Amino acid sequence: MGAIERVLITKEELNKQVKEMASRISKDYEGKELVIIGVLKGGFIFLADLAREITIPVDLDFMSVSSYGNSSKSSGVVKIIKDVDTNIDGKHVLIVEDIVDTGLTLNHLVELLKTRGPLSVKICAALDKPSRRKVDVQVDYKGIEIPDEFVVGYGLDYCGKYRNIPEVCILKKDVYLK
Ligand code: XMP
Ligand code: MG
């Protein structure tokens, strides 16, 4: 695709990361009631991969939040577009997200979900961009660290596009700077 500068993380690297995380999650939550909450839309591909490598029974649900609108800069405003249907009272919750950038989205989600009586709320993210963090959010299952570049693919989009690219790619700057 012409808008792509280069591949940053290959399918093989993503696959290895997913398997390691799923194995840790399966061990950590063995014998516990776990609700996995995928954050739409960006988290859908990672969650689909991760869920199929998890070897314990889990409940799966989704939330849809928006923090970016159509630009590549975080507004800091988190809008809940779709909430979960699952009652998380007395259960362990694992939020599955595509990327932790400023941390604002996950910080907001954790605080919101904690008000609903879960036994624990933890975070699993495929990618981590630590250089841009604005709030200190604890990511319990942290994925691959990436530099401060705007990336697309593996669920991540620019203006709704490129989510279907199987690798994580760096977008050409002139695509979003114009
Ligand atoms: P915060 O800043 O709240 O952001 O941690 C989390 C959300 O921002 C989006 N995001 C990106 N999306 N390429 C994208 O396509 C990126 O490089 C990028 N960085 C952040 C993403 O939706 C994430 O859930
Ligand atoms: Mg997202």
UniProtKB/TrEMBL annotation:
UniProt pathway annotation: Purine metabolism; GMP biosynthesis via salvage pathway; GMP from guanine: step 1/1; Purine metabolism; IMP biosynthesis via salvage pathway; IMP from hypoxanthine: step 1/1
Role, per record: Purine salvage pathway enzyme that catalyzes the transfer of the ribosyl-5-phosphate group from 5-phospho-alpha-D-ribose 1-diphosphate (PRPP) to the N9 position of the 6-oxopurines hypoxanthine and guanine to form the corresponding ribonucleotides IMP (inosine 5'-monophosphate) and GMP (guanosine 5'-monophosphate), with the release of PPi.
GO cellular component, one term: cytosol
Residues annotated as domain Phosphoribosyltransferase: 14-158
Pfam families associated with the record: Pribosyltran
Encoding gene (name): hpt
Subcellular location: Cytoplasm
Keywords, comma-separated and alphabetical: Cytoplasm, Glycosyltransferase, Magnesium, Metal-binding, Nucleotide-binding, Purine salvage, Transferase
A molecular function (GO) term: guanine phosphoribosyltransferase activity
EC number: 2.4.2.8
Lineage, highest ranks first: Bacteria, Bacillati, Bacillota, Clostridia, Eubacteriales
Catalytic activity: IMP + diphosphate = hypoxanthine + 5-phospho-alpha-D-ribose 1-diphosphate; GMP + diphosphate = guanine + 5-phospho-alpha-D-ribose 1-diphosphate
Cofactor names: Mg(2+)
An individual GO BP term: IMP salvage
NCBIfam families, alphabetized: HGPRTase
Native organism: Ruminiclostridium herbifermentans
Identification of the protein by name: Hypoxanthine phosphoribosyltransferase
Alphabetical list of CDD domains matching this protein: PRTases_typeI
Family per record: Belongs to the purine/pyrimidine phosphoribosyltransferase family.
InterPro entries: HGPRT (IPR050408), Hxn_phspho_trans (IPR005904), PRTase-like (IPR029057), PRTase_dom (IPR000836)
